[in-house]
Amino acid sequence: xxxxxxxxxxxxxxxxxxxxxxxxxxxxxxxxxxxxxxxxxxxxxxxxxxxxxxxxxxxxxxxxxxxxxxxxxxxxxxxxxxxxxxxxxxxxxxxxxxxxxxxxxxxxxxxxxxxxxxxxxxxxxxxxxxxxxxxxxxxxxxxxxxxxxxxxxxxxxxxxxxxxxxxxxxxxxxxxxxxxxxxxxxxxxxxxxxxxxxxxxxxxxxxxxxxxxxxxxxxxxxxxxxxxxxxxxxxxxxxxxxxxxxxxxxxxxxxxxxxxxxxxxxxxxxxxxxxxxxxxxxxxxxxxxxxxxxxxxxxxxxxxxxxxxxxxxxxxxxxxxxxxxxxxxxxxxxxxxxxxxxxxxxxxxxxxxxxxxxxxxxxxxxxxxxxxxxxxxxxxxxxxxxxxxxxxxxxxxxxxxxxxxxxxxxxxxxxxxxxxxxxxxxxxxxxxxxxxxxxxxxxxxxxxxxxxxxxxxxxxxxxxxxxxxxxxxxxxxxxxxxxxxxxxxxxxxxxxxxxxxxxxxxxxxxxxxxxxxxxxxxxxxxxxxxxxxxxxxxxxxxxxxxxxxxxxxxxxxxxxxxxxxxxxxxxxxxxxxxxxxxxxxxxxxxxxxxxxxxxxxxxxxxxxxxxxxxxxxxxxxxxxxxxxxxxxxxxxxxxxxxxxxxxxxxxxxxxxxxxxxxxxxxxxxxxxxxxxxxxxxxxxxxxxxxxxxxxxxxxxxxxxxxxxxxxxxxxxxxxxxxxxxxxxxxxxxxxxxxxxxxxxxxxxxxxxxxxxxxxxxxxxxxxxxxxxxxxxxxxxxxxxxxxxxxxxxxxxxxxxxxxxxxxxxxxxxxxxxxxxxxxxxxxxxxxxxxxxxxxxxxxxxxxxx
Length: 849
Fold this sequence. Notes:
Oligomer: single chain
Distance between the termini: 133 Å
Helix content: 40-55%
Shape: elongated
Strand content: 5-15%
Radius of gyration: 55 Å
CATH topology of the largest domain: Nucleotidyltransferase, domain 5
Largest sheet: 5 strands, antiparallel
C-alpha cells in the first residue's frame, strides 16, 4: 500500500470522470485546481472533495509501473494487481529484496547517492545473502559462492548482474509511486505486445472469417477460421503487386485474438441462447420466507425406476411423479405417481393430495411418524408448460392461490424442488432394484429389466416411508427461511404448529373436487350429454333441458348472475366439469341457479375408475383395430371399378341420346302393344306344343347362342353392338318388360286389323346406332318426327309388298281368347319371318318358366 495522500499542490485526482491537478491551497478550506483536458482553473471546497472520496466518486492518481490503463479515463488510478500477497512467491521475494536493497539509499540525498556508494551497497547486500559470511563483516562473493546461492535461490539470479543505474531506477519508481512497494514488482506480465498488430484490412478479413466459420452452430474448430482467413489473404494478394502482398500472421496470434472475444457472444452463436444464458447466468438472493405454506413449488419428473406388473411381474415402464414442496420448511406437501405423462390431470391429483390432511398414511403405510404437511399454499410456483392451462389458473384463483409461472428453461427459479428430485433419486430410486440411473453411462452393464421387482403399490409405500421417516427427519440446507440456513423439516413444521400456525382449507371437500376438475361446454340432448363419446344421463337434465328450450322462445327471466350466459342459454349450451382421473361422473352447471348438478355415466361398468388418458388410449386402439380389419387395397379397387362403370354408362348414354330421341314415339307404341299382347302370346305358347325333335333342339340352340355371345361380348366391351340382342334392344328403349323375357307377339282385333301400320324392315347398317358425325341430314317437312324418320328409311324396301295384318283391339284382352288358334299361329309365323322397322330382331322362341 502506498503512503497516504492528501490535497497539496501537484497532486492529481480523478473526479466525475475528469482529471484535475491541485494548483494552490487557499484559506477557508478552498483550493484551486486545473482541468487537465481544458486547462481551465476551478475552485472547489475541500470538505466536498473529501465527501466524494468517501462515496468512492473521487480517486487520487497513481504513478509508476504496474498500473492499469483505461481508455475512458485520463489518469491511472488502479494497479494491475490489488494485493502483493496475490502474486506468485518468487515475485514477492524479488520485490522484498529490492526494497531491502534500496532502503538505506532512500535516507541519502540525490547528491550523496553516487555511483561508488550504490555499488558498495550492492556488494554489501549480496554478501549479506551468503549464509557463510559473518553478519557484521560481509565479504565480496566468490564465483563458487555465486553458484551455491543460485542453486538454493534461483530467483536471485538478476541481483548478481544489477548495475547502479538499475538501482537508481528502482529508487525513482518507488518515490514516484508515493513509496508503494508494488512498484518494485517485476513487470513480466507487460512483456511483449499488448495489442494485436493487424492492419485494418487484415483485421476485417479475420472478423469475416470468424463470423462465417466460427460463430455458427456448426461449432467448427479454430483451424477452419485460419483456413478461411488465409484464403481471403491469397485472393487479395492475387490482385496486388508482389511488393504489396499481405503477410498472414501466425496461428497463435489468431488463437489469442479469438480468446479475447466475449465468451457470452461466442457461446450464444455456437451453443444457442438458452445454453449460453444457463452457462453465464447470475443469480441473486431470492425472497425470504417466514412461515409454512407461504410458497410452494410444483414440478414433474420421470422416475429412474422400472415398475413391474403385479400379476405377471414383467416391467411395464417408468412412472411419472408430481410433487409439491414447501419452501420454508422443505416438507413435501404431497406427491402423486402415475404412468400418465405430465399433464393437468396429474397436477390436479397432486394438488388434491397435498391440500387434504393425510391421517391415513401412518395406518396404511405403517410409518413411524405422521405425515404433518397439508393445507392450501399462498403462492404456487409452476413451470411455464403447455400441460398447465387456464383451468389451473381458474382453480387457483378461486382457492386463493397466487399462481406464478416461471420463465421457460430456467429451472433455478424453483431450485428447491429440483434439488428434492435429485435427493430422491440418489437416496431412494438409484438404490432400488430395477433402477435405470440418470444416465446410461452410470448404468453400465446393469440390466434394469432383469432386476426390476417393484410394483406401483409398493413404490407408493416406499416413497411414503422415505418421505415421512427419512427425508423429513434429517438436517437439510436451505430451509428455515434462509438459503444458507439449516434445519429439520419435521421439526420446523411442528414448531410452526406450536406457534399457532393453522393451515388453510376450503369450506367443503366436494367444492375442492369440483374446483380441481376441468371445464368444457356441451349441449343437452334427449339422450343426455355426450362427452368423449360417453353418455351421461340423469332425470335432473330433463328439467334443465326444458328450461333451456323455453329460453329460446321466451324472454329470459333468470338471475343477473347468469345474464352473461344469455347467448349460450339461447343456443342450449351448458358448462360442464369433469375430473380427468375419473370419468364415471360429470358436473353440469345450471345457468339459472348457478349450481352444479352431478350426472353419472350411462355405462357405469366401463367408466368405473376410468381416467381420461386411459379412455383415449382405448379409443385409439379401437380405431387402429378397425383400420386393420379393412382391406384397403380391395376397397380402392372396388371404388375404381365403380367409377369405371359410371364412366362407361356416361359414354353409352351420350351415344344413344340421338337414338333415344328418335325412338321416343316408338317407345310409347311398343309399350302399348307389349302390354296388350302379353297375355295372349303367353296362352299361345302354352297351348302350342314344343318341338322336341333334333332339328328343333338345334334351332333353339342356334337361336340362343348368338344372344348369349352378344351379351357376353357387350359385358366385356361397352362399345360392342349386335343386332341379335333382342332383350338389350328393348332395355335401351326403356320399355317396361314386366315378366316377359323373350319374344313379342301381336294379336289382331275382332275385325282382323293390327293396331298400327307395319314398318318396312331395316338393314344391318341402319339397325346399328350411328354417331353424331354419321347422322343423316334432317329434311324440312311438316310431317311428324316419326313419319320423317320412316320416310328416310323406306327407300331401300319400297318395292317389297306389305302384308296386311288385321288391327288388334288394345285394351280388351277378353276378346283375344276368342280368336282361332290357326290365326294366331299364322300371325306369329308372319311376324317372326320379318324384321320390324324399330330395330328389334324378333324370333320365335319358347317361354322360360
